Amino acid sequence: MGDADGDETGAGAEPAATGAAVPEGGEPVCWLERVCPECGRLADTAPPVRCARCGTPLTG
Ligand SMILES: [Zn+2]
Q1: How far apart are CA 17 and CA 25, in angstroms?
Q2: Of 33, 55, 58, 59, whose CB neighbour count within 10 A is largest?
């Protein structure tokens, strides 16, 4: 990506490629909220939840 500069083909393919590469756009945000800022542990459930390792509250 970024190879074709200013071409309408490249501009048109960009949003299409993004949609094809990442069909589930909301998924990364969901699990990012579960990552503990203190120790980096991924919580088993969605916030609000307390980190099982260090006890840091994840508010989301
Ligand atoms: Zn933690």
Answers
A1: 13
A2: 58
What is the phi-psi region of residue 58: left when phi exceeds 0, alpha when psi lies from -120 to 50, beta otherwise? beta
- Give distance in angstroms: CA of 5 to centre of ligand 1: 44
Q: How far apart are the CA of 48 and the centre of ligand 1, in A? A: 13
Q: Distance from the CA of 9 to the center of ligand 1, in angstroms?
A: 46
**Judging by beta carbons within 10 Å of its beta carbon (0-12, 13-18, 19+), is residue 18 exposed, middle or buried?**
exposed
Q: Distance from the CA of 6 to the center of ligand 1, in angstroms? A: 46
Render pLDDT for 21-57 as a digit per residue (tens, 0 to 9): 555 555 656 688 899 999 999 999 989 999 999 999 9
